[in-house]
Amino acid sequence: MALRNLEKAYIVASILLIVLAYYIPYTILSSARDFSLYLFWLVIVVCEIILSMIVLYKGGDGNEY
Amino acid sequence: MSIEVYIAMVVFYFLAGTLIALISRRIGIKSSIDYYVAGYRLSGLLAAMTYAATTYSAFMMIGLVGFSYTTGVGAFGFELMYLLATIFLLTLFSPRVWAWARRNKWVTPSQMLGELYGSRFLALVVAVVYLIALIPYATAQLVGLANLFEGLGLGYSIGLLFGIATVFLWTYLAGIWSVATTDLYQGLWMIISSLLFIFWILLFLLPSNGVDVGEYARILGDNGYLGLTSFWKLPIFIAFTLPWIFFAVTNPQVVQRIYMPRNKKSLKTMILYFSLFGLVYTVVVTLVGLSARVLTIVGVFPELAKQRDLVTPTLISLSPVLLGSIVFVSIIAAAVSTLDSIILTLSSTTSNDIYGYWRKNRSSKDMYINYIVIVILVIVTGGIAALKPGFVVELSVLSSVMLLPLAPITIAAWVYREKVYRKYRTPLVALLSGFLISFYAAIVLGPKKAFITTFYGAPVSFWVLIVSTVITVLGLGIEEKFVRG
Prior knowledge:
The complex is a heterodimer of chains A (about 60) and B (about 475). Chain A has helices at about 5-25, 35-60. Chain A is an all-alpha fold and about 60 residues long. In chain A, helix 1 (about 5-25) packs antiparallel against helix 2 (about 35-60). Chain B is an all-alpha fold and about 475 residues long. Chain B is built from 23 helices and two strands. A two-stranded antiparallel ribbon of chain B has the order 1-2. The N and C termini of chain B lie far apart (about 70 Å). Classes of the chains: A mainly alpha (about 60), B mainly alpha (about 475).
């Protein structure tokens, strides 16, 4: 399976987002008293949706392998 | 009066859905490929809504609302981890899986694994694992549905019979065509009703009890519900999220939906619409639970921490009758749409990969076995639901734990497609090892404890994934070096 640069960047970015979605809530935001933890998770997913749409719609048809 | 409105809404839901299912028969079913994967001809909207309605079950409006109410924002994170990982996995893998499926005429995910690894026996074993693992998940839908009827005073048995009859009819009529079209109808009902419900809670119920936006956040924050409550220790969060993270590659009812879009544009539309549906629905559902917690803290809603599955029914009982009946039916819709998809998928894997293992010359136009299997599965699921087993949440997650060993072997096959052919011993050992660990834990500890009990600081789901992944990696390496297919 030959990955193009766009897919490589997407994989790295997505894994980073998943790691952050675990790490930040258990460190910086574990004792949040406002909606910051809620918004953090929300923003992470919105970022993933945007990244995915970029890969799907701008990546052409090459990701079929 | 109110009970009549609820009954009328249920009858309307059933009749409208049945009409849609009947109309979908016009498509014309000629083979198993038409019946189970829509002849690879689903539009993007239909594909997205059947993916969403299949994924989001009664667990959302009953289990997750109660979970948010009891454990705070951590429940939101737990559910969003699923969505985050699913969007990633779908974007990365679905274009190639979609292309391979139509090229190789795949009908079932077990057939897919069997062909990728070059073993019909592997397909058989995977199909059996699906059957064992998805029975609790399917049962959870019926239990949730029947509990709703019971809470309304209509009786558990009536709810159970209604669920069985609806699922059977909407599955049997036109296979995936009736399931997908009713999923579109039910998915729209679910999302619109949930939005109406949260608007009513935020704009009427809370303000009428003296709670404005600032007060809402302050109450939740002061009581610790906006951070991670003591429930969400890291091993517990991992225990809950790990099976769901791989849901998109382990659960056959959603893997099968990757095959169905009619072209690449429809596939992309499916992923986009599903992502938006999932995000909005998760936000709304968790806000319902958090709002109920605020109402409990200010003293106008009963404390239901020990009966968290009753949070939504109790909120519904406080709402205007028409709204309550719409939300009530949306939960029925969520349960039915998930259940009929599972039944149809299990029917396809059973007839294609279990029955088909012994009847090798079976024609795809040989439809009667498909119908027989659907009848059997509906009866079995209904029979187990009649025994009223455990909490919806635990039952649902347990299924995904049992299916978790499929994650490494499926991803390995998708990534190293040509290299894994004929290396079927490794996935067999990996699958059975992981499955037996989870099955053993479920038997010994009971379904509730099986996935929250930790061993050496990590939950069972973690060890299932580690064991099956290590076996997959080492096994494929060994087979590559020493075994000639």
